[in-house]
Amino acid sequence: MSGHSKWATTKHRKGAKDQARAKSFAKLIRQVEVAAREGGGDPASNATLRTMFTKARDASVPLDTIERAIKRGTGELEGVRYEAVSYEGYAPGGVAVIVETLTDNRNRTAAEVRNLFSKNGGSMAEPGAVAWQFERKGVISVPKEAAEDTLMEAAMEAGAEDLTDDGEHWTVTCGTAELQAVKAALDEGGFAPSSAELSLVPTSTVPVEDETEAKKLLRLLDAIDDHDDVQAVHANADIPDAILASFEG
User: Range of 118's domain?
Assistant: First the structure.
């Protein structure tokens, strides 16, 4: 799919190399807590919690830590109350960016995200300015060892919409309601997805082929993604693989 952002692939690769484990755990726990507060503490009847629970377990977050987060979300245990707030902006090269956060102080988070944009050559935008360029989808990453034809057949039969080659991984895209069913089908088929989550996928992309501009963009996205309150960063950039590899190096 032409609209898939390679930033998602870059984040996946970089995550295994340089994201602090404790910070990753903290973000996942916060996602679990908010999902439980908004939809109840039973993963069987709360699809968002079920997705976050699986994501946390896949990242090796201890089960008792997840269960405490669920109890904080449902009010059984005391804890800080977080709310989901999204921010929109533009990166160098006119790339659209959406930043999803969970925060206990939206004024502080807004100021800090705005500062990260301005320090790295970007700018914040008004709500709705770029959101129309993205769609919420289920996104599943599968190791490249899987054969494309058999993977596509299994994914499509389970309700997937598309399969793309993102370098080291295949990316399966589906509707939000089909995420769990498609992941289960791939698990049963022996494809061993490395991640499965709800994400914002761009409907079209902005080519960024100048190396200097691309590196400015990636530095901005990396700086924002590293903020404690930020849960996900989405951009509609299409960056050549060679530049991505240079940045990772």
Answer: 84-132+208-233+244-248
